[in-house]
Specification:
Bound molecules: iron/sulfur cluster
Order of helices and strands: EHEEHEEEHEHEHHEHEHEHHEHEHEHEH
Helix content: 25-40%
Number of strands: 15
Shape: globular
Radius of gyration: 24 Å
Number of helices: 14
Structural class: alpha/beta
Distance between the termini: 60 Å
Length: 430
């Protein structure tokens, strides 16, 4: 059973008069367990929806619609499947020890449903028989899998869960059932790099088109999980890894119509190498995993430059983390040239998690306040959209509204790629 949280306007659900609080029991005789079931079973031309109102009345709705048209019912959030691993590099263990983050950030999720719906990486170690059956029945493909290492002993040492050593069997089972995956390796020095990574690449590549891509992401540590036996990669280790990944890419391009293996932006940044352009990533949507994010922002900003209004006299300040700062500074210069505005980029150290954390999306509200305060007399402040959630809360639970209140003279806007916000601006001073 799932409960309706809201009903979209102009939807079939609204036409039928379905109200928030209604319990959705079955579609076409199938019990509804969660959001994924609703999406799966409502994809039909003829839908018999059995529901129960908040007053306990049962109603059978008979719906005729286009296959891909949703009924427009938004369910209450599902209970998330928890992770049963104990990785020493776990980002949850990297949270500040005091409860000062948004509540959800203390939850270790490992949920195959979120993997299919939103591209979250999962380890497959908590799947029950009924989960496997559902993956095949509902064809939940592709899934995003944190492989880390195909050597069972190494994977066991990393995930510290006996089931993690079954990765080969798990991947076989998915491939046999026709489920494809995007694989990920979080690279930890002296654990799964070097020869272990070579074997992982070899084993995954040998699985043919059941493994659609492999992303290699350097381990991210904070002030709070550096003492758990994992250290950051050195520059030389990043260089060696990039060379190894490049060899895999060259082979894939010779033998398949894809580069297949992708190093995360952060690996290039930590190696001190130029972050590649969009062509490196073969149009794959791996940006949420830090793979191709820099080129995505750069390309989208540049595409918009010619369409920007004249903003002469307007002073713009942009907040970013230490890794993206050089790239954003370059974008800022191009925006200044195109618009006549004054554009400053503030390279901001992360005090919420510590200086090892360098991305803009992990800066807290207090970090933003500290960065923007010296620019309180500027006109426009741009922050990364990734630093806040849908409720406009930063990771440290400060709201965007609180930040705006603290800096009343500055118009603060979350932005995806700088120019998305500036396109609609008018000059503040002439
Ligand atoms: S699988 Fe992810 S959430 Fe689970 S312990 Fe490892 S890093 Fe943490």
């Amino acid at each position: 059973m799932i409960r309706v949280a809201s009903v979209r306007s102009d939807s079939i659900g609204e036409e039928l008069g379905i109200r928030p609080g209604t319990r959705l029991l079955q579609i076409n005789g199938n019990d509804l367990r969660d959001t994924l079931d609703l999406a799966f079973y409502e994809s039909d031309e003829t839908v018999q929806l059995l529901a129960e109102t908040a007053d306990g009345d049962r109603i059978l709705y008979e719906i005729e619609k286009d296959v891909d048209r949703s009924i427009g019912l938004v369910p209450e959030p599902d209970k998330v499947r928890r992770c049963t691993n104990a990785c020493p590099f776990c980002f949850v263990k990297g949270n500040p020890k005091i409860e000062k983050l948004r509540a959800g950030l203390y939850i270790k999720d490992d949920d195959y449903r979120l993997s299919f719906m939103f591209g979250h990486y999962v380890t497959l170690t908590n799947l029950r028989d009924e989960d496997w059956a559902r993956i095949f029945e509902q064809r939940l493909s592709p899934l995003y899998v944190s492989v880390h290492a195909t050597d069972p002993d190494v994977r066991l040492a990393m995930l510290r869960n006996p089931r993690s050593a079954e990765i080969g069997e798990h991947l076989d089972r998915l491939a046999t059932g026709g489920i494809r995956i995007h694989a990920q390796v979080v690279l930890c020095p002296e654990l799964n790099d070097g020869e272990v990574l070579e074997r992982t690449i070899r084993d995954l590549y040998a699985r043919g088109d059941s493994v659609l891509s492999l992303s290699i992401v350097p381990v991210g540590l904070t002030d709070y999980n550096q003492d758990r036996g994992v250290r950051p990669l050195t520059e030389a280790e990043c260089e060696r890894t990039l060379d190894l990944v490049e060899r895999a890419r060259q082979r894939a391009r010779r033998e398949r119509d894809t580069s297949w293996a992708y190093a995360a932006d952060e690996l290039f940044l930590q190696a001190g190498r130029e972050v590649p352009g969009a062509e490196y990533f073969d149009d794959l949507e791996l940006v949420a995993n830090g793979v191709g994010a820099v080129s995505d922002i750069r390309d989208r900003a540049r595409t918009d430059l010619a369409a920007l209004p004249r903003l002469a006299g307007t002073r713009i300040v942009m907040v970013t983390g230490t890794s993206m700062a050089p790239h954003l500074t370059e974008i800022g210069r191009e925006v200044a040239r195109a618009t006549g505005a004054t554009v400053e980029t503030v390279r901001t150290e992360n005090r919420l998690f510590g200086p090892l954390v360098t991305t803009a999306g992990l800066l807290g509200g207090e970090d933003h306040l500290r960065a923007l305060r010296p620019y309180a007399d500027f006109d426009i402040g741009l922050i990364s959209r990734t630093a806040i959630n849908d409720d406009e809360l930063f990771l440290d639970d400060m709201s965007l509204a609180e930040l705006r209140t603290a800096l009343p003279g500055l118009e603060i806007w979350p932005s995806e790629h700088v120019t998305d916000v500036l396109r609609d601006m008018r000059p503040c001073r002439q």
